[in-house]
């Protein structure tokens, strides 16, 4: 903490922790007086401004073991950083220890076995780059700079989930350092409780150092639909889109957004800043006649303003919106699951979209079902297999003076749609700490009790207990 002279002071406990880490880690130990401290504590969401006492930037699994042992001895508040892209910023904590895996970037693909092993600091774009050499994918999210760790541990909604399931559904195994400092491999056949918890249970089970994914054939080129529709037809487009999704094959995962047209030179200048309805769908298979037939219903919502559909590299689809969510902007996202998208719910969505506080803010409607629903309800910690839709209210802005208005809009819109929801909340879009604390039952549902038992069994002293309570 700064003292009266403005310098940074440390406690005896912090010094002891720093000494143990400094003597045992090959990677870097970054304290508050380090010249790279501010850069090391920064995460994607500029709304998050936390000041940990120490950051243990691990070079590999051995460093993670030493960091966990030090945490068990000195008992600081602990957070774990993978890609650092999570909305709630749970990768960093105030006054505690950050176990930072962001520099662990190894990826090994076995094309014959159709598997990939990736370390916890890898992003989806980095994983896609390696797997697409072989025309294979692990189902990721919607932004390529998202880390594989946080997305997968929270479940992992994405653009091909109806075909291949959630990100966590493609997991074969994880390597994890538990609170006792032991390196374990968790899979269906060993440490099966840990493996169950790693598929959608979020945080608090240990430090996952690597993920083994089963891969699926897709790419390098895919057929995709992306249409911008006039905003004055928003309700009509939403209803038509909803009706079309009822008969959509599992090879297509439709998505819809209420948004504003960015200042993209590839888009007509006269549309920049205009409110629109965006519909997106990717065919999870080879381009051709089958793709055309499967995607045709996604093109029949009336004449679009802009049609950006076509055959493009899968990596282009996965990174298309990266620039619209830049590092350092301020973000707040909160979501809910729905079994039905009624006309009344659609009217609520359009009503609250009209109140968006900034052009960067948006409302996204995702479709589940297909492979997501074919996994048994109790086969993983992810608790929302039967849901038909996920709706998220995503506030984005730059000016700190807009914090209250932007966050307030997302929370109020969420409250307005809640009567139409099935009662679930996606942990990766669960607001900030206070939002997740109020909705833990909604996040994990009937799985919460089993999760707590598993955490207690592997972490009886509660080394990771605070991390488990974060979104």
Automatic annotation (TrEMBL):
FAD-binding PCMH-type domain location: 48-218
GO molecular function: FAD binding; oxidoreductase activity
Reported cofactor(s): FAD
Short name of any one Pfam family annotated for the protein: FAD_binding_4
Lineage top rank: taxon: Bacteria
Key words of the record: FAD, Flavoprotein, Oxidoreductase
Gene3D superfamilies: 3.30.465.10, 3.40.462.20, Uridine Diphospho-n-acetylenolpyruvylglucosamine Reductase, domain 2
Family stated for the protein in its record: Belongs to the oxygen-dependent FAD-linked oxidoreductase family.
Name of the protein described by the UniProt record: FAD-linked oxidase
